[in-house]
Amino acid sequence: MGGTALVLCGISLLLVLCCCVLLTHHVAPRYGVRVRPAASHFTMGAYDRSQTHILSVSAGDEPRLYDGSDRIAGDMQGVEAVLAQWAGETPSRVTVVLVADSAVTAGTLQTLTDMVLRHGMNCHLGAVPSIE
User: Fold this and answer.
1) Structure confidence by residue, pLDDT tens digits, 8-19
2) What is the pTM of this model?
3) Residue ranges of the alpha helices (H) in the chain?
């Protein structure tokens, strides 16, 4: 009887330790979209952060577009509305950084770049630093 209780306590302790290890290593389910941009050796120069906006793009049949962490409704038409809002009075001072997943098609990137440039804003493609 005492041995069984000791074994059950040991198993319970092992399960609690496993859960603690899994939770501290972020193995628990996460919600949202992870965007993995391509790597680049080049860096962007100095820019005015108050006039800079980040537009994230994730891959898919219909690409999902985000303004920061907020999803843009209406896909490309929604992006047009957001860009018009960002342009303001001096669109030439506004910079839009496109952070696109490496699986996003070149056509989608070109369409978004054209949209930004059509509004008179500057456009940059975001990337992670290349390790070499």
Assistant:
1) 888 999 988 887
2) 0.66
3) 2-24, 75-87, 106-118
